Amino acid sequence: MQELGMAEQGSIRVSRKDDNVVVIEKDLATEEMLLSMGPQHPSTHGVLKLECMTDGEVVTSAEPYLGYLHRCFEKHCEVVDYPGIVPYTDRMDYLAGMNNEWAYCIAVEKLLDIEIPRRVEFIRVMVSELNRIASHLVAIGTYGIDLGAFTPFLFCFRDREHILNLLEWASGARMLYNYIWIGGVAFDIPADFNKRVKEFVDYFRPKVVELYKLLTENEIFVKRTKGIGIMPADVAINYAWSGPMLRGSGVQWDLRRNDPYSVYPELDFNVPVPDGKFSDIGDCLSRHLVRALEMEESLNIIEQCISKMPGSDGFNPRSAVPKRVRPKAGEVYARAENPRGELGFYIQSDGKSTKPLRCKARSSCFVNLSAMKDLSKGQLIPDLVAIIGSIDIVLGEVDR
Amino acid sequence: MAEIEEGKGLSQSLHQSAAAYAVIREQFADAISDFDANETMPFFEVIETEKWPDIALFMRDHPKLKFNYMACLSGVDYPAEEKLGIVCNLESLGAFGHRIAVKVKCSREGGSIPTAAYVWHTANWHEREAYDMFGMQFTGHPDHRRILCPEDWEGFPLRKDYKVQESYHGIKVPY
Amino acid sequence: MSVSAISQISLPFLMGNNLNAWSDALAGLTISWFPLGLVIIAAIPLVFIALYALTYGVYGERKISAFMQDRLGPMEVGKWGILQTLADILKLLQKEDIVPTSADKFLFVIGPGILFVGSFLAFAVLPFSPAFIGANLNVGLFYAIGIVSLEVVGILAAGWGSNNKWSLYGAVRSVAQIVSYEIPAAIALLCGAMMAGTLDMQQISVLQSGPYGFAHFFLFQSPIAWLPFLIYFIASLAETNRAPFDIPEAESELVAGYFTEYSGMKFAVIFLAEYGSMFMVSAIISIVFLGGWNSPLPNLGSVALYDWTSGPVWGAFWIISKGFFFIFVQMWLRWTLPRLRVDQLMYLCWKVLTPFAFISFVLTAIWEIYVP
Q1: C or N: which end of chain B has fewer Cβ atoms within 10 Å?
Q2: Which domain holds residue B16?
Q3: Burial of C135 (0-12, 13-18, 19+ CB in 10 A)
Q4: CB-based contact A344 B148, cutoff 8 Å
C-alpha cells in the first residue's frame, strides 16, 4: 500500500496489487475549475476577460486580462497634431465623449496658457454635464441588467435618447462629437438650445425619482448589492480610485470642487457621498447611489448654467482657437472629473513640433479596474458580476 | 530653487509643492535633483534610481507630506539622453492637497527601475503598462507582464525607434 | 337567448354536459382497429399549447414587456407584429442544428426532449372543462407534481451534455433549485388536496362549484388557504425558472445557463417547454385554489351569472383565462424584479417557504377538523 496522489485539497489513498489500482480511501476532493469570463460575456461590459479560479460558485481568484480593444491611442497621438487628437479622445470613453475632449483640451490650454471666453466655458460645462447624465444613465441601466432587472435599462435608454438628441443638435454627432476644441467649441449652441435643455431638466427630474423607486429601493436589488465588494477609503485612495468609486467609499473628493477648473467655482452643487444609513460605505450599493445622486446634481449645474450663461451677441466660439497649436517646451498633467473618475492627460511638448512628444491618458476605468483582483477574492459568481457592474468600466477607455 | 526663494509670481499650489519638496530634500539630499518650479507641472528627478522606493515610501508616510494618491504614472522615452523614464504625478488627497511630480530614469537598453507597486497599489498596472510600451524593467514588481499588447508581441511600441514587426501569427501587421 | 345557451350551440357530439362527457365519448371513438379518439385527446392539449405558446406565450411576453418598458415591441411582421412568432419559427427551422464536437451527443440531443416531455405530460391530467380531461387519474395532482420533476433530468442532461462550463453551472444551479422548491410547492398543494379530500383534479374542481361563484373557491373557503396559495405561487416561479428566480439561465452571469450551446430547433423546443410549464403551474394553481373551470361570477337573485357562465365551453374559457392571468403576473414580475443570488434563493426556500408551508399544512389540518 502506498500514497499515490495528493490532490490539492483532500487526498486519495490507493493500494496497488498486480497493476490493479484500487482506491481504498478518498476524501471529498474537489478541484478548482478555471473559468474564462469573457472576452465575450454579457456582463463584462465589453471585451474584458477575467480568468477566474472557481470552487463551486465561489471565485477564489480573478485575474483581469486587458488589451482586446487596444487601439494605440498614445501611439496615434505622436503622429497627429494637437487639434487632431481631439476626435481620438472621443473614442476612448465613448459614453462620455464631451468630458474626454474637455479634459484633453484643458491639458493643451494649460500648456498654451490661453484665456477661454466665458460663454465657451458655460457651454462646455453644460454639454459635459449633459453627457455625464447620459453616461450615468448607461451605468445605472446596465447595472440593473447585471443584476437581472431589464426594465430600468430601457427606461434609462429612453431618457438618454433625449440627451443624445440635444447633443446631436449642438454638435452634429450623437456619440463622437469633436465639439470641444482647443480654445473654444466648434459651434455656438443653436438658438433655443437652452430652452430645450430646460425642458429636458423638467422632464427628467421625475424620471430620476421613478428610477429610484424601480431600482434603487427595490428590496432584491438592495440585497444583491449591500455589503458586496466593500472597499475601505484608505485602500481606495491607495488604488488611486476616483470619481463615484472613491466617493462611494466615503471620500468627499470631486475634482470640480477640490481642484476646480473652468467655471465650476461659480456654480453651486453638492458632492454626494453615502452616509452609511441606506448602504454600507464602500459597497456596490454606495457606488450605485453616488451615481444616482450625481445625476440630480448635474441637473442643478445645468440649470445654473442656463441662467448664468452670457448672451450670444458678438460671440465667436472659435475666437480663442489658435491657428497653429505649437506649445512651448514643457510638460503638463491636467485632469478633469469624468463620469467614471479622474481623466488625466500627461502631455510632453518639445516646443518645436505641432505634435506632442508624448501624450498619456490616465484612464479612470483602467485605474479603478486594477483593484478588481483584490475585490473579487472569495466572492460568489453573481457577486463578481455585481462588482464589475459597480466599477462601471468602459473598455474603450481601459484599453485606449 | 532660486526662483522659489525669490517667490515672485508663483501660485499658491506651486508654493505648497516647493514646501513639500524641501522636506524630501532634507531627508534625501543628493539622491534627488533640484526642484523644477514650472507652473504646468512642478517636478523633481530621482538621481539615485535605486533609492526610489525609499523616497516613495517616505513621501507616502511622512506626516508632513502624505502623498497617498498616485494620480498617474507615465512612461517616457528620452532618446537624446539615451534614457527611459517614468513620470509619477503624486498628490496628497484629503490631507494637504499638495501635488508634485517625480521623474525616475533608467538607461535605455536593459535599464531597470525599482517598483513602487508596494507603496501605491495603483502603480502595479501603470508600471506594467510602462513596461509594455517602453520595455524598462521594474525590479521587484509582483506581476511583471505585458498588459495591453499580447504576451508575444515583439518590441515596445512607444519607443521612438520602434519598428513594427512584419507579421504576427501570420497576420500582416503594417497596413 | 341567454348567454348560457351559447355554450349549447355546438356539435351534437359535444353536447354532453356530464363530467368528462367529451373525453369519454372521444376515447370510445375507434375507426376499425385504430383508437383515433385517444389520439385526438392527446392532440388537443398539444395543439392548444402550441397555439398558446406561439400567440400568448412568446408574442404576449414580447408585447407585455414592451408595454411595461415604454416601447413598441414587434411591429413589422403583420399588423402589430402578430406574425412575428411565426416568422421566428420559420427562422429557427431553417437554422443549422449545431451539436458541438466535444459535446456528449446523446445527452445533448435527449436533453431538450426530456424537458419538453416533462412539461407536457402534466397536461394530461389538467381538466380543461367539466367535460374534458385527458386522463382522469384519481391521483392526478400527485402525478402532476411528480412528472414535473422529470424536467430536472432534462436540464441536467442538457447542461452536462453541452460540455460547457457555463451550461454546467446552469444545470447544477437548476437542479438544486428545482429539487429544493418542490418541497414547499408540494406541501402547499397538499393543503389544497387536504381541503378537497382527493387528489383527483376533476374532483377538486367539482368540489369548488356552487352558485356563489368565487365564494366556493378554496382560496375563499378558509383564510389559511392564502398562505399555501402564495407559497405555491412563489415556488412555482422557481420551478419554472422564471424571474426573480431565473438563476439557472441568468443571462448576465451564466451567458444563457444550461442552454448556452443550443441553437435552432432544439433551442425552440427548450423555449416551448418553458412556456409549457409556465401554463402548467398556472393551471394547477387555478385548479387547486381558484376553482379551475368554475365561473367566478355568483348568482345574484334572478341575475344568474353563475348559471349563464357555466358549461363545457365556458369552463375551458375560465381555466384558460385564469391560467393566462397567472402567466401575466409571472411576466409582470419578470420585467420588474432583479434576480436573487444563489444563496439567497436557497435561504428563501429552506428557511422561509418550507417552514411556512409546514405551518400552513398543520393549520389547514386543524381548520379542516374543527371548522365545519
Answers
A1: C
A2: 2-160
A3: middle
A4: no
Name the residue facing B72 among A67, A346, A399 (closest C-beta): A346
Instruction: Give which of C89, C150, C139, C138 is closest to C277, Cα–Cα.
Output: C150
Supply the pTM of this predicted model.
Answer: 0.84
> By the CB < 8 Å criterion, does A43 face chain C?
yes
DSSP conformational letter for B43:
E
Yes or no, beta carbons of A253 and B147 under 8 Å apart: no
The pLDDT, as a whole number, for residue B10 is 60
User: From A222, which residue of chain C is nearest by alpha-carbon distance?
Assistant: C338
Tally of structural domains, chain B: 1
Contacts across the A-C interface (CB distance below 8 Å): 76
A75 contact B CB<8A:
yes
Give the start-end residues of each E strand in A296-351.
330-338, 341-349
On whether the CB atoms of residues B117 and B124 are closer than 8 A, the answer is: yes
Among A3-7, A60-64, A187-191, C130-134, which is the least confidently predicted range? A3-7
- Assign residue B121 the CATH number of its domain: 3.30.460.80
Question: With the CA atoms of A386, A391, A394 and A398 taken in that order, what torsion angle do they form, in degrees rounded to the nearest 10?
Answer: -120
Q: Bridge-partner residues for A65, per DSSP?
A: A49
| Rounded Cα–Cα distance for residues A208 and A204 (Å) | 6
In a domain, B165, yes or no: no
**Residue B169 φ/ψ, nearest 5 degrees:** 50, 45
* Cβ pairs bridging A and B (under 8 Å): 93
Those chains having 3 or more beta-carbon pairs within 8 angstroms of chain B are A
pLDDT at A25: 65
**Among residues 258-287 of chain A, which lie with CB inside 8 Å of chain B?**
258
CB contact under 8 A, B40 and A367: no
Q: Across the interface, do A335 and B71 touch by the CB < 8 Å criterion?
A: yes
Instruction: Report the alpha-carbon distance of residue C222 to residue C367 in Å, rounded.
Output: 8
Q: What is the pLDDT of residues B92-145, one digit of tens each?
A: 887 787 888 888 888 888 888 898 888 888 888 999 999 988 888 888 888 888
Q: pLDDT (tens digit, 9 = 90+) per residue, A48-94? A: 888 888 887 888 888 888 888 888 888 888 888 888 899 999 888 88
Which of residues A24 and A232 earns the better pLDDT score?
Answer: A232
Find residue A16's DSSP bridge partners.
Answer: A21
In a domain, B73, yes or no: yes
The closest CB to that of A70, out of B121, B124, B149, belongs to B149
Whole-number Å distance between alpha carbons of B102 and A134: 36
Q: Which three cell numbers stand for residue A334?
A: 491636467
Mean pLDDT of chain C: 81
Report which DSSP code applies to A221: H
Q: Does A58 touch chain C (CB under 8 A)?
A: no
∠ CA A343-A348-A350 to the nearest 5 degrees?
Answer: 160
Q: Please, do chains C and B touch (3+ CB pairs < 8 Å)?
A: no
Contacts (Cβ under 8 Å, ≥6 apart) of C179: C149, C152
Nearest to A41 among C243, C255, C338 (CB): C255
C13 falls in which pLDDT band (50, 70, 90)?
very low
Any chains having at least 3 CB pairs less than 8 A from chain C are: A
The three grid cell numbers given for residue A142, joined into one nine-digit string: 446596465
Domains of chain A in sequence order: 1-31 (no CATH), 70-376+393-399 (1.10.645.10)
What is the distance between the alpha carbons of residues A132 and B36, in angstroms, rounded to a whole number? 36
Residues 6 or more apart in contact with residue C9 via CB below 8 angstroms: none
CB of A399 within 8 Å of a chain B CB? The answer is yes
Q: What are phi and psi of A261, to 5 degrees?
A: -135, 165
Distance from the Cα of residue C135 to its chain's centroid: 17
Nearest-angstrom CA–CA distance, C270 and C110? 11
pLDDT at position A15 is: 65
A277 pLDDT higher than 50: yes
